[in-house]
Specification:
The complex is a heterodimer of chains A (about 220) and B (about 800). Chain A is an alpha/beta fold. Chain A is about 35% helix and about 30% strand. In chain A, a hairpin with a 2-residue loop joins strand 9 and strand 10. In chain A, helix 3 packs parallel to helix 5, helix 4 packs across helix 5 and helix 5 packs parallel to helix 6. The chains are: A alpha/beta (about 220), B alpha+beta (about 800).
Chain lengths: ~220, ~800
C-alpha cells in the first residue's frame, strides 16, 4: 500500500538546517498494523505527516497504492486524503463548538455525502464505538477516553483504507488507553491499515511490526508474533 | 450548508460571550455614529434639491469689489425683471422680499395680535412655480392680485383654528389681506421657509421704500431674492455675462465694482458668503470622523480575531485534515462576522432612533435634523454591514491562505508572526482617539474664547425689545416709564446690538476730500444713549447730542486711524457723509467688534436713523430682573397696544452667532467620546485574551519570585507603551490640523503644550484603568492553577 524510498525532509531556520528524515526507506502492506517508535525528535511525527499528505518531502519517492504522490499539489493531496486516510491525534482535536454527532459527521460533509446517508453512517459508527448515547454532548462534557473514541469514530466514518494515529493513548489513563488500542485492533482486523506513532512499548505490542527510528533512519524493525 | 455555518457561528459567539459582547457593543456604537452622521450629512445635502428644476435654478448674487470684497445674496427687482425680459436662456423665475417682520392682526371671533419675526415674504404666484409647495386649499393665482395672502397650514391653524382660512382676512399696518390659498408646511430641508406670503403688489402700500422697485437697480438687499430658471446648466456663464451687461447702463461707472453671479439653488445652503449655514468642509470632516470611528471598531474586531488565532488554528487545522477547503473555512469566519455585524446593526438602528430626539433637543435645537427616509437609512445600514464584513474578511482570508496544517496541529501558530500588526492596529486606534480628544479640548477652548472675549462693548444684562414702528411720542412715554424703574440704568432706541449676524454699511466721504473713501464702514444705528447702554468707551471727544441740529457721529478708533492715521483724534469736528445725511464726528470710541470674532474689527460709525430704530435696548442692574421685566411688559402693553411684547438678552443673541462652532464642538466631543469608549472596549478584550494566553508565563514568573505588582505592571506596560507611541504621532498631526482650523478665526487661542499633556494623561489613565484590572487579576491568580491549566 505504501512504499517510500530515500525519503528526505529538512527543517531550516535562519542559521541551522535540521535533518528530520534521512533517506528513509519503508514499505507497508495493506492490512498491516505498524507502530513507529523512537526518541523525541527522531522524525516520527514528520514521517506521519508526510504519510498523511499533510506535509511534502524534500526528496525521495512516496508511492501510495502504486501512485507517486510525493509532489501532489494541495488540491490533489486534499482529495486523496479525504477519501483514503483517517487521522487520530494525541490531543483528539475535536471541535469544541460541535456536538459528538456533528464532529463525526464533518468528514462526510466535506466529501459531499447527502444528509440521510450521513445520519445513517454516523449513527452506525457511533454505535460501534459505543458512544451513541453521548451523540448530543459537546467534547468538553466527555472523558478523555470518550473523546478519543469520538475522534476514532470521526477517523473511520469515511471508511478510509489507512488510519494514521499519532500517540492515540498519550493523553489517556491505562484503562482508557487499552480500550482505544482494542478499538484500533478491531478496525485492523476488519481490514484497515493502521500506522501508529507511540512512545509506549505496551501499545506497540498491539501492532504487527515495530519500526524504530533514530535521527531520521530506520534502525530496526521488530516483527511481533 | 448555510445552516451548519450559522449553527457553529452562533455556538462560537455564545461560548465566547464576553468577546462577542465587546465586539457587538463596539460595532453597534460605531455603526450608530456612522448612521447618525449619515442622517446629518444626507439631511444637509438634501436642502432644496427636490424643487421641480432644482438643478437649473439659480439665485442672482453679487460681489462688491472694494478694498475688501463684500458678498450679497440679494438683488434688485429691476434686474430680475430685465433678466426675465431680455435673456432668452432664462425660462422661468421668481422674486420675493422675504424675512419680513410685522405685527399681524388675525382671528375669527376676536382679533388677536401676532408678532411675526422674519417669516413673512412678499411675492406672487410665480414663486410657487419655481419652488415646490403642495396646495392644501384655494388658488395660488389669487396672490397676483392686491391685498391677498397665502398661508402655510400651521400658520392658518394658528390664526383661525379649525375654521377654513380661505376668504378670511389678516391685517398688517391696518391694510387688510384676504387669504386666497393654504399650502402645506415647509419641509424641514429648505432655506425658503416663510410661513406667510403676501401679494407683492401690496408691498408698495406697506413700505414706501418699494414705491419704485421696478426701476431701482441699486435696491440690493439681502432680503430681496431673485431666482432664475435656465434652460440648462451650460447656460450659466452666458447668463452671468448678460446680467452684467444689462446692469451696465444703470450703474454707470460704479459697475466696475460689481460682479453679478448665479449661485446654484442646491449650493446656497453651503455658501457661507451668501448666507449659507453649513460648511461643506464640516460635512467632509464628519464623514472622515465617521470612517475613523468605524475603523476603530473594525480594528477591535480584527484584533480579537487575531488574538484568538492561536486557539483557533488547531480547529482550522483539524478541519483542513478532514477535507475542508479554504473557501469553506473563510465562509465560517464570514458567517461569524456577518452575524456579529447584523446584531450590531439592529442595535445601532435602535440606538439612533432613541438618541436622535435627544441630540436634536440639545445639539441641533436651532436646526433639528430629520430622517428623510427610513428605507434609505436601512439601505445605508445594509451597505455599512457589507463594507464592514468585506474589510473584516480580509484578515482571515490572508491568514487561511498562508495556513500551515502541520504547524497548526503542533500549536505552533504563535502570536509572534502577527504581534507587530496587532500592535500597529492598537497604536492606530489610540491615535484616532487622541486626535479627537485633543481636537475636542482645542475646539472647546476656542468656542469659550469666542463667547467670552471682550468685544469692546458691554453685553451683560442688556435686554432687546422690539418696538416696531412706535411713534416718537410712544418712545418718549416708554423712556419716561423706564426712568422710574430702579433696576434700569439706561435705555437706547436702536436698530440692533453692536454685534449681530447682519450689518448695514456703506462707503463714505470724509471732511473736504473730493473722493469717497474706497472702503466701506459699518453702521451701528441708535440714539445718543446707545454708547452708554452698550458700554462703548469714549476715548476722545464727547458723546452725541440727539437734539443737535446737524447730525452727530461717533466713530471707532480703527476708523479714525483709517481716516487720519496717527493724528486720529483730529477726526473730531470734521464732516462726514455716511450715506444720506451729512454730519460731524464728535467723538471716538474704543474699538468694538460688530461681527462674530471670525472677523477682525471693522471701521464703524455710530449714527442715528429714527426710521430704523425699531428696538429698545434696556440695560439692567440685574437686581430684580424678573420683576423689572414684568413692569416693562406692563408699560409696553399700555404704551403700544398694537405691538406684541417679547424680549431677548443680548448675550444670548451673541452666543447664537457661534452656533456653528458650538455645533462643531458638540459633534467632535461626541465623536471623541465614542472613539474612546470603542477603543477601550477593544483594549479590554485584548488584555483579557493576552493574560489568558500568558497564564503559563505568569505562573512561571510567580514561581520564580515575581510579585503581584511587578506582573500587573508588566502586563499593563505593554499596552501603555502603545498608547504613548500613539501620542507621539498624535501631537504633530493634531497640532497641524487644529492650527489650520484656528486660522478661520480672526481671533483665536494659541495651542499650548499642556493640551497634549492633558490628552496624553487622559489616554494613559483610560488605558490604565481598562487594562489594569485585568492585569492585576491575572497577576493575583494562584500559580499552581495557571501552570496546571496549560
Amino acid at each position: 500500500m505504501i512504499k517510500i524510498t530515500n525519503l528526505e525532509k529538512f527543517y531550516r531556520t535562519e542559521e541551522v538546517e535540521t535533518v528530520a528524515l534521512n533517506k528513509l526507506n519503508l514499505e507497508i502492506n495493506t492490512g498491516e498494523f505498524v507502530a513507529i517508535m523512537g526518541p523525541s525528535g527522531c522524525g516520527k511525527s514528520t514521517l506521519l505527516n508526510i504519510l498523511g499528505l499533510l506535509d511534502d518531502p524534500d526528496g525521495g519517492s512516496y508511492l501510495f497504492n502504486g501512485t507517486e504522490v510525493a509532489h501532489f499539489n494541495e488540491r490533489k493531496r486534499a482529495d486523496l486524503r479525504k477519501h483514503n486516510i483517517g487521522f487520530v491525534f494525541q490531543s483528539f482535536n475535536l471541535i469544541d463548538e460541535l456536538t459528538v454527532f456533528e464532529n463525526v459527521e464533518l468528514p462526510l460533509i466535506y466529501t459531499g455525502v447527502n444528509s440521510a446517508d450521513r445520519k445513517q453512517r454516523v449513527e452506525e459508527v457511533l454505535t460501534k464505538m459505543q458512544i451513541m448515547h453521548r451523540r448530543n454532548h459537546y467534547p468538553q462534557q466527555l472523558s478523555g477516553g470518550q473523546q478519543q473514541r469520538v475522534a476514532i469514530a470521526r477517523a473511520v466514518v469515511n471508511k478510509p483504507k489507512l488510519i494514521l494515529a499519532d500517540e492515540p493513548t498519550g493523553n489517556l489513563d491505562s484503562s482508557n488507553g487499552n480500550e482505544v488500542m482494542e478499538l484500533l485492533t478491531d478496525l485492523n482486523e476488519q481490514g484497515t491499515t493502521i500506522i501508529m506513532v507511540t512512545h509506549s512499548e505496551h501499545d506497540a505490542r498491539y501492532s504487527h511490526r515495530i519500526v524504530r527510528l533514530l535521527d531520521g533512519h530506520t534502525v530496526v524493525e521488530n516483527i511481533m508474533m | 450548508m448555510l445552516q451548519a455555518y450559522l449553527k457553529v457561528a452562533w455556538r462560537r459567539l455564545k461560548a465566547r460571550l464576553f468577546y462577542t459582547l465587546l465586539n457587538v457593543l463596539g460595532l453597534a456604537l460605531a455603526m450608530g455614529c456612522c448612521i447618525l452622521l449619515y442622517v446629518y450629512v444626507s439631511y444637509q445635502l438634501s436642502f432644496d434639491t427636490y424643487h421641480r428644476h432644482a438643478a437649473t435654478t439659480y439665485r442672482v448674487v453679487n460681489e462688491l469689489h472694494l478694498d475688501k470684497t463684500e458678498y450679497d445674496k440679494g438683488s434688485a427687482m429691476a434686474m430680475y425683471l430685465a433678466a426675465r425680459r431680455e435673456i432668452p436662456q432664462v425660462v422661468n423665475g421668481a422674486y420675493s422680499c422675504s424675512r419680513q417682520s410685522y405685527i399681524v392682526t388675525a382671528g375669527t371671533a376676536d382679533k388677536k395680535l401676532f408678532r411675526e419675526e422674519k417669516n413673512i415674504a412678499f411675492t406672487n404666484s410665480k414663486w410657487f412655480d419655481v419652488f415646490k409647495y403642495r396646495v392644501v386649499a384655494g388658488n395660488l393665482q389669487g396672490l397676483n392680485q392686491l391685498n391677498t395672502a397665502v398661508l402655510t397650514q400651521k400658520q392658518a391653524q394658528k390664526y383661525f383654528g379649525s375654521t377654513p382660512a380661505i376668504g378670511q382676512y389678516l391685517q398688517i399696518k391696518n391694510i387688510p389681506m384676504r387669504v386666497v390659498a393654504v399650502v402645506a408646511n415647509c419641509p424641514y430641508n429648505t432655506d425658503q421657509n416663510s410661513d406667510i406670503y403676501f401679494s407683492f403688489a401690496t408691498l408698495k402700500q406697506i413700505d414706501p421704500d418699494y414705491k419704485n422697485y421696478t426701476n431701482q437697480w441699486g435696491y440690493i438687499s439681502s432680503v430681496n431674492n431673485s431666482y432664475l430658471v435656465l434652460r440648462t446648466t451650460a447656460d450659466k456663464p452666458v447668463v452671468e455675462k448678460m446680467l452684467n451687461q444689462i446692469a451696465k447702463p444703470y450703474f454707470g461707472d460704479g459697475i466696475k465694482y460689481y460682479k453679478f453671479q448665479l449661485l446654484p439653488l442646491t449650493e446656497q445652503h453651503f455658501d457661507l458668503r451668501y448666507g449659507g449655514t453649513t460648511q461643506k468642509s464640516l460635512l467632509t470632516v464628519l464623514i472622515v470622523i465617521g470612517c475613523l470611528i468605524l475603523a476603530t471598531a473594525i480594528i477591535n474586531y480584527i484584533n480579537l480575531v487575531v488574538a484568538q488565532q492561536a486557539r483557533r488554528s488547531t480547529e482550522i487545522g483539524t478541519r483542513k485534515v478532514l477535507g475542508a477547503t479554504a473557501g469553506r473555512l473563510l465562509m465560517q469566519f464570514v458567517t461569524e462576522s456577518v452575524m456579529t455585524t447584523t446584531v450590531a446593526a439592529v442595535l445601532a438602528m435602535g440606538l439612533v432612533a432613541a438618541v436622535l430626539p435627544v441630540i436634536n433637543r440639545y445639539w441641533f435645537s436651532a436646526q433639528p435634523v430629520h430622517v428623510g427616509s427610513w428605507l434609505q437609512l436601512g439601505l445605508f445600514t445594509l451597505l455599512l454591514v457589507v463594507i464592514i464584513n468585506l474589510v473584516m474578511g480580509i484578515y482571515p482570508a490572508w491568514w487561511l491562505n498562508r495556513f500551515n496544517i502541520t504547524h497548526a496541529l503542533k500549536k505552533q501558530a504563535t502570536l509572534v508572526q502577527t504581534g507587530l500588526g496587532r500592535k500597529a492596529l492598537v497604536v492606530l486606534q489610540n491615535l484616532i482617539a487622541q486626535l479627537l480628544i485633543a481636537g475636542t479640548v482645542i475646539i472647546v477652548m476656542q468656542v469659550q474664547f469666542l463667547k467670552n472675549t471682550d468685544k469692546g462693548f458691554d453685553r451683560n444684562m442688556v435686554v432687546n425689545i422690539s418696538v416696531g414702528q412706535a411713534t416718537d411720542l410712544q418712545k418718549q412715554r416708554l423712556l419716561k416709564g423706564t426712568a422710574q424703574m430702579p433696576d434700569v440704568s439706561s435705555v437706547s432706541f436702536c436698530l440692533n446690538s453692536p454685534a449681530t449676524d447682519s450689518q448695514r454699511g456703506a462707503t463714505l466721504q470724509f471732511d473736504n476730500r473730493p473722493k469717497w473713501e474706497n472702503w466701506p464702514a459699518r453702521f451701528a444705528i441708535g440714539d445718543a444713549a446707545y454708547a452708554k447702554t452698550f458700554g462703548l468707551q469714549l476715548i476722545a471727544g464727547r458723546n452725541r447730542d440727539s437734539h443737535a441740529t446737524t447730525p452727530e457721529f461717533l466713530v471707532n478708533q480703527k476708523m479714525a486711524r483709517m481716516l487720519m492715521g496717527n493724528h486720529w483724534t483730529d477726526v473730531i469736528g470734521k464732516k462726514l457723509q455716511p450715506g444720506d445725511p451729512k454730519g460731524i464726528i464728535v467723538g471716538v470710541v474704543k474699538d468694538f467688534n460688530v461681527h462674530s470674532l471670525l472677523e477682525p474689527i471693522e471701521p464703524t460709525v455710530v449714527l442715528e436713523d429714527k426710521n430704523l430704530q425699531t428696538n429698545m435696548a434696556v440695560k439692567l442692574n440685574g437686581q430684580h430682573t424678573d420683576a423689572t421685566l414684568k413692569t416693562l411688559q406692563q408699560l409696553y402693553t399700555e404704551t403700544l397696544p398694537t405691538e406684541v411684547f417679547s424680549y431677548r438678552f443680548i448675550d444670548e443673541q451673541i452666543a447664537s452667532l457661534y452656533r456653528a462652532e458650538t455645533l462643531q464642538q458638540n459633534l467632535i466631543w461626541g465623536a471623541a467620546a465614542m472613539a474612546i469608549v470603542i477603543s477601550s472596549l477593544g483594549l479590554l478584550g485584548l488584555v483579557s485574551l493576552m493574560t489568558l494566553q500568558r497564564t503559563k508565563e505568569i505562573g512561571v514568573r510567580k514561581v520564580l519570585g515575581a510579585g503581584v505588582s511587578q506582573i500587573g505592571l508588566m502586563l499593563s506596560a505593554d499596552f501603555l507603551k502603545l498608547v504613548g507611541l500613539a501620542l507621539i504621532v498624535a501631537i504633530p498631526g493634531s497640532w497641524w490640523l487644529m492650527n489650520h482650523w484656528l486660522q478661520n478665526y480672526a481671533y483665536h487661542i494659541q495651542i499650548h503644550w499642556w493640551v497634549y499633556a492633558l490628552t496624553g494623561l487622559l489616554a494613559m489613565l483610560i488605558a490604565f484603568f481598562t487594562v489594569g484590572f485585568q492585569s492585576f487579576k491575572a497577576a493575583m491568580a494562584n500559580p499552581v492553577n495557571s501552570l496546571r491549566s496549560e
